[in-house]
Write a structure and sequence with these properties.
The complex is a heterodimer of chains A (357) and B (61). With 357 residues, chain A is α/β, with parallel strands linked by helices. Chain A is built from eight helices and 30 strands. Chain A is elongated, with a radius of gyration of 22 Å. In chain B, strands 1-2 form a two-stranded antiparallel sheet. In chain B, a hairpin with a 6-residue loop joins strand 1 and strand 2. Chain B is elongated, with a radius of gyration of 12 Å. Classes of the chains: A alpha/beta (357), B alpha+beta (61).
């Protein structure tokens, strides 16, 4: 079986972070989100992986993943160029997939329980495709599957007004090579994209059996800032504390803290896990890092209080202010205005930023 | 819809026809690959089919 990871897209909902890099490299619990997809594929025994690249952030993703050997996989790059839809991206992999089956994984999705069960479920039956589903409270916002008691899919409906079930499509699919026949048969949708749901619907109508697998653990599409923070929280729930960095006498560290080698917590700083602090980062005296916070590499925190937040890295936060539910982009500097006149906030805010002051 | 691609003979990196047609000629985007890829490297049949349906492979502004 082959793997296909979609790493294109424009990341418009994550601006301004995606003005300077692809969304798939935004770290969650201090790992770029695309690494979770690679890990899930590898754990399912899939090591031959195509990574689909768009026009944006292509070089950064290639520089990060290389040939895949650092992650225990073999990566082939597929340049889709224009984002013409998931089905078009899969169609670009026809030669790569050949006569194998393939797993298609959206590179900004994270699943708690991985994909091993989904792949096993597909392989034990005689199906042309397998889809991952999850019970959701608001199915009208998603692609929804009409599924019988045996798990066989009868129809897919995109954002229905009257959902046939509460089972939403998760961003992972398994396909037999018949998917390429389906992709060739369908036409672009109203939004000029070849839709994967149309391809699956075509398979349903022309080939019959499509397997479904209900994902029991959480699933997050990290397409928006609040999703990144939520995914970070969910991943840190399971983080194992490991102090490889240095904790000074007089520092207070409690709970599960993943302190990377080369990171430092100085005296009179407080860190309460679950939290992750990356290499090269210094938590200085008077700083409080609260639960569900990830601080990226080469950052410096001086006197700040921060909780349930993600600092991407290369940042300096030197103010006594309190930050919650925040996503701070690479290289950002947050300083103190104390003692400066006139009083007030001094901001240099990038396009599409969101602030609550 | 037919999807046309070209695989670099040197490194195996795959490029969609829409990207090749947009640039006509490009350095292979594969890691450390020195090859040049051209739209004209696609088989004649693929080029004709692509050009006959070119609008399908573009994003409308």
């Amino acid at each position: 079986m082959k793997g296909i990871i979609l790493a294109g897209g424009r990341g418009t909902r994550l601006r301004p972070l995606t003005h300077t890099g692809p969304k798939q490299l935004i770290p969650v619990a201090n790992r770029p989100v695309i690494e979770y997809a690679i890990e899930d594929l590898r754990e399912a025994g899939i090591t031959d992986i195509a990574v689909i690249l768009g026009n944006k952030g292509r070089e950064e993703i290639q520089a990060h993943l290389g040939d895949g050997s650092a992650f225990g996989v073999d990566v082939t790059y597929v340049v889709q160029g224009n984002p013409l839809g998931i089905a078009h991206a899969v169609g670009c992999c026809r030669e790569f997939v050949g006569d194998d089956d393939c797993v298609v994984y959206l590179g900004d999705n994270v699943l708690k329980q991985g994909i091993t069960d989904l792949v096993a479920s597909f392989e034990t039956g005689d199906h042309v495709a397998g889809i991952a589903l999850q019970h959701v409270e608001d199915p009208g916002r998603f692609g929804v599957a009409d599924v019988d008691e045996s798990g066989r899919v009868h129809a897919l409906v995109e954002k229905p007004q009257e959902p046939p079930s509460d089972l939403a499509l998760v961003g992972v699919y398994v396909f037999s090579p018949a998917v390429f026949e389906a992709i060739e048969a369908i036409e672009p949708s109203w939004r000029d994209e070849l839709e994967i749901t149309d391809a699956i619907q075509w398979l349903l109508e022309h080939h019959g059996s499509i397997d479904s697998h209900v994902v029991e653990g959480w699933w997050k599409d990290t397409g928006k800032p609040e999703d990144i923070i939520e995914a970070n929280r969910l991943l840190l729930e399971d983080v194992e504390g490991a102090v490889s960095g240095r904790v000074a006498d007089g520092a207070e560290v409690s709970g599960r803290v993943d302190l990377h080698e080369g990171a430092r917590i100085e005296a009179d700083a407080v860190v309460r896990g679950p939290a992750s602090i990356a290499s090269g980062t210094v938590i200085e005296a008077g700083t409080y890092v609260g639960p569900y916070t990830s601080i990226g590499p080469d950052s410096r925190l001086v006197g700040a209080q921060i909780e349930n937040s993600v600092v991407v890295g290369g940042s300096t936060i030197a103010t006594a202010e309190r930050f919650v539910d925040s996503l701070i982009g690479r290289g950002a500097t947050v300083g103190s205005a104390d003692g400066r006149l006139p009083t007030g906030n001094r901001l240099v805010v990038g396009e599409n930023s969101q602030l609550e002051l | 819809m037919k999807v046309f691609t070209l695989a670099c003979a040197d490194c195996g990196t795959v490029v969609a026809a829409n990207e090749l047609e947009r640039r006509r000629e490009m350095h292979c985007p594969g890691l450390d690959c020195e090859a040049t890829l051209r739209f004209s490297d696609l088989p004649e049949e693929a080029r004709s089919a692509f050009l006959a349906n070119r609008e399908q492979y573009r994003i409308r502004d």
